[in-house]
Design a protein that fits this description.
The complex is a heterodimer of chains A (418) and B (83).
Chain A: E1 11-19, H1 26-35, E2 41-42, E3 55-56, H2 70-75, H3 78-94, E4 106-111, H4 117-130, H5 139-142, H6 147-156, E5 162-163, H7 171-185, E6 190-198, H8 202-210, E7 239-248, H9 249-254, E8 261-270, H10 283-296, E9 305-307, H11 314-328, E10 337-338, H12 341-344, H13 351-365, E11 367-368, E12 390-391, E13 396-402, E14 407-414
Parallel strand pairs in A: 4-5, 4-6, 9-10, 9-13
Antiparallel strand pairs in A: 1-7, 1-8, 2-3, 6-7, 8-14, 11-12, 13-14
Helix pairs in contact in A: 3-6, 7-13, 10-11
Chain B: H1 4-19, H2 40-54, H3 69-82
Classes of the chains: A alpha/beta (418), B mainly alpha (83).
Chain lengths: 418, 83
């Protein structure tokens, strides 16, 4: 079958980094996922008394000083701090040295849905309260959505292409997929790719509430996010970042790198339907899934695990299940499908990156993380991996991301075989 | 009126806040750009904070590329003296 296609460079993952509401490293995050630990709490960082939703999954206990000088963390938004911290973990794990020769071949692609939410809110308030002199000298750079990518590039001296793809809730998966193309096409040999967001500010929560997207189960935060459960009532806003070191496979092998998995497929599409609601039959989601499987040169029946988008909104969960059923057919009732957002909440631009990292671990450990709070499943024939992790041999995993504005992105990962 | 040492200490506080510089490094003969690695954007933050702290208005035109901590102290004192 592969003879129908032109040969292309293979892309592997050699390091990962995670900053999340349930762990400030890949290992801590994965341990929490397997334990079914929720990161959702009442919001303490600002006044929520007049907001319909008063809960979120925020990053807690993060000390930027551990990762970067004061001069750097002071000038940037938390979303960029998280990205930088995740990138540092990923680069250290990959044991990669970015020297002068490699630097022009190293790209950075850090997606984000909302970008520098805190800085933007401060600018608006600062201008109102103090006038133009109240705006800091770095605001212009720090308020932009590409700032995380820029800071990561500065830190590592990465001189290949860089930037921030923004496809709402799909940004992390889009970033990884587009970065894979940079390597396949030969533009880069290494890309630090992922996503980051910290859209838990008063303005973000208020606007997501107005969009009627968030859960209002304020009195029971741990059970508020219940993907694929019929009692779900909206998603939970979350903060975090995930970064993967993508590397051209031959290069990774030559240097004896720790190869975690192969990134074998990527598909993207757009619903072209509505600003927030998905297409009623998940046409865009189906198209992205089919494109990703075709790109990976596999059949749907080859897939051993699906890390679902699974936001815990009525519309997403119903339509995602429908889309998976349409594309996977009978196999939809055999393959485990879980939503790790049930524990992390929805990290928006970081979600796809962090979930790809969860999928990599499922492949490596032969364990798929659970969907917690799935008591009354949307589709009783589907294995949503309720409550507790399950052992499954996973050779191929799919990670779904479906965003507002109808942005859909799907990544396919496979156990590494030279 | 603030003494030179009081202003130096005030600037050292500000530089610790915006740039994480140890206060002992902020001496009168140190150049912002060459010795303290304070670039022009950080300098804007330092000047705005100094204006707030000392209740003065500082023109950025008075600061040259090689300006030292002592130069900024004198600018603040000069302005203070004319208030």
């Amino acid at each position: 079958m592969s003879s129908e296609y032109a040969p292309r460079r293979r892309v592997v993952i050699t390091g990962t980094g995670v900053i999340s509401p349930i762990g400030l490293s890949t290992a801590a995050f994965w341990e929490s996922l397997l334990a079914g630990r929720s990161g959702i709490r009442r919001i303490e960082s600002f006044d929520v008394s007049d907001l319909p939703t008063q809960i979120a999954a925020q990053v807690r206990g993060f000390d930027p000083e551990q990762y970067m000088p004061r001069k750097v963390w002071r000038r940037i938004d938390p979303f960029a701090q998280y990205a930088l911290a995740a990138a540092i973990e990923a680069v250290e794990a990959a044991k990669i040295e970015i020297d002068e020769e490699l630097a022009p071949r190293v790209g950075v692609q850090i997606g984000s849905g909302y970008g520098a939410s805190t800085v933007q809110q401060q600018v608006t308030l600062g201008l109102e309260q103090k006038g133009p002199r109240g705006i800091g000298a770095f605001t212009s750079a720090a308020s932009a959505i590409d700032n995380a990518a820029g800071e990561v590039a500065i830190r590592f001296g990465a001189k290949g292409p860089s930037g921030a793809i923004s496809t709402a809730c799909a940004s992390g998966t889009s970033a990884i997929g587009e970065a894979m193309r940079w390597i396949q096409y030969g533009t880069c040999d290494v890309v630090l790719a992922g996503g980051s967001d910290d859209s838990v500010t008063r303005s973000d929560i208020a606007s997501a509430c107005s969009a009627r997207a968030l859960s209002r189960r304020n009195d029971d935060p741990e059970h508020a996010c219940r993907p694929f459960d019929r009692e779900r009532d909206g998603f939970i806003m979350a903060s975090g970042a995930g970064v993967l070191v993508l590397e051209e496979a031959d290069r990774a092998m030559r240097r004896g790198a720790p190869i975690l998995a192969e990134l074998v497929g990527y598909g993207a599409s757009t619903d072209a339907h509505h600003p927030t609601a998905p297409h009623p039959e998940g046409a865009g989601a189906q198209q992205a899934l089919r494109a990703a499987l075709a790109d990976a040169r596999i059949d749907a029946s080859d897939v051993d695990y699906v890390n679902a988008h699974g936001t815990s909104t009525k519309l997403n969960d119903q339509i995602e299940t429908l889309a998976i059923r349409k594309v996977f057919g009978e196999h939809a009732t055999r393959v485990p499908i879980s939503s790790t957002k049930s524990m992390t909440g929805h990290m928006i631009g970081a979600a796809g990156a962090v979930e790809a990292i969860a999928a990599i671990h499922a492949i490596r450990d032969g364990v798929v993380p659970p969907t917690v709070n799935c008591f009354d499943p949307e589709d009783t024939e589907v294995n949503y991996v309720p409550h507790t992790a399950q052992e499954h041999k996973v050779d191929i995993a799919v990670s779904n991301s479906f965003g507002f504005a109808g942005h859909n992105a799907v990544a396919v990962l496979r156990a590494w075989r030279p | 009126m603030n003494t030179t040492e009081e202003i130096r200490e005030g600037l050292a506080d500000i530089l610790q806040e915006v740039a994480g510089l140890p206060q002992a490094e902020v001496q009168l003969d140190k150049s912002f750009v060459n010795d303290l690695d304070v670039d022009s954007l950080l300098m804007v933050e330092v000047v705005v904070a100094a204006e707030e702290r000392f209740g003065v208005s500082i023109s950025e035109d008075d600061l040259k590329d090689g300006s030292t901590v002592g130069d900024l102290v004198r600018i603040i004192q000069g302005v203070l003296a004319t208030v």
